[in-house]
Amino acid sequence: MTSFEKFRQQLAAGEVPNPAQVVIPEKAKSKQGHRSGIVTRALAVAIDISVTIVVMLVSYGLLWLFLLLIAPIKIFEMPEASWFFLAGFVLLWAYCTASWALSGRTLGNHLMGIQVVDYKGNRLGWPLSALRSIFSMVFPIGLLWVVVSPTNRSVQDTILRTGVVHNWSVTLIDPFVKE
Amino acid sequence: MTTPGEQPDEGTGQEVVLVVNQVPSPGATNPVSELVGLAAGLVGAVASVIDHTVTAGVNAALDRVVPIAVNVVVDRIDLTKIVLERVDIDAIVASANMDKIIDRVPMVDIANYIIDEIDLPKIIRESTGGIATDAVNAARMQTLSIDEFINKIADSVMFRRKGRNSESPTSSDSASGQ
């Protein structure tokens, strides 16, 4: 019989398999904690951008419906592309900043099983998170450096000393919890 | 059952009630027999008193002596060992009514305690990931292999013989000072 106290100790010491790790395919287990490659990261970015666009369209639709209540005779029209682009930019920046600072994952990161960490492997702080997301957005081509880099880092990662690592499970023992 | 021709047994419904009336005959009293009767009554009463007294006394004595004696006996023997050797505890447990025992055990409280302690909801969340894990894992495996393929090509183009080092420090490493 294993007491709960003992179970937790064994789990912390890695003597028993983490229930959350069991579902990870055998082949991918060795890749956990390694920096991910270009395709994974690009797909995550694509998912995030898609999410942002969907959120923007839905928000605009709701806003238009609300305006319809105030001024009933208003013809629906899409906003100017530049405004749309600017709003999307700000939204994506805020979304990435908050996601990386709070959990290290945006929705795209979560689906692709990757996590943004600093040079120690910890979660980014808010300033670093904000800096990294704005840097990634004004210089998206920097992501391609992952292919060239010997350590799978983008230009942003190299300069800000961050990394994007595979972490397919939200583990019982959160690596971000600092004792 | 009685076969034909036999006398019916007793207790087949026929009861014989014998009533004897003793007719007292005055003048036939015998002083000796009266005396004997009186003496017998007296002896009976005395015997009854003695019986009660003795019984009470013996009971009181036993009440005091028996616990002491049993204690002395039990002190000198290893009752647990005897029970373990001679009593079939499994049989006793097997014959116990488990339903009644379980009825007295707060099963729901215990279940809730276990669920809280091992944080079952979190385990379920993590195992399922909120999304069909198998499908997501399959997609991740696909991109992982494409990543490796691209990395291999890039490494060979740049004549990088050792390949690349994608290992990243984790916070557990930094916590233990590595």
Overview of the structural elements:
The complex is a heterodimer of chains A (179) and B (178). Chain A is mainly α. Chain A contains 8 helices and 2 strands; from the N terminus they run H-H-H-H-H-E-H-H-H-E. Chain A has one domain. Helices cover 55% and strands 6% of the residues of chain A. In chain A, helix 3 crosses helix 4 and helix 4 runs antiparallel to helix 6. Chain B has a domain of 48 residues. At the A-B interface, helix 3 and strand 2 of A face helix 6, helix 7 and helix 8 of B.
List the main descriptive attributes of the protein structure presented here.
heterodimer, A: 179 residues, mainly alpha, 8 helices, 6% strand, disordered C terminus, B: 178 residues, 0% strand, rod-shaped, Pra-immunoreactive (chain A)
Nutshell version of this structure?
Chain A: The chain crosses the membrane at residues 38-71, 83-103, 124-148. The complex is a heterodimer of chains A (179) and B (178). Chain A is mainly alpha-helical.
What topology does this entry show?
The complex is a heterodimer of chains A (179) and B (178).
Chain A lengths: L3 H10 L12 H4 L8 H33 L10 H22 L4 H6 L1 E5 L7 H13 L6 H4 L6 H6 L1 E5 L13
Helix pairs in contact in A: 3-4, 4-6
Chain B lengths: L30 H46 L2 H8 L2 H7 L2 H7 L2 H12 L1 H9 L4 H25 L13 H5 L3
Main location (chain A): membrane
GO cellular component, one term (chain A): plasma membrane
Membrane topology (chain A): Multi-pass membrane protein
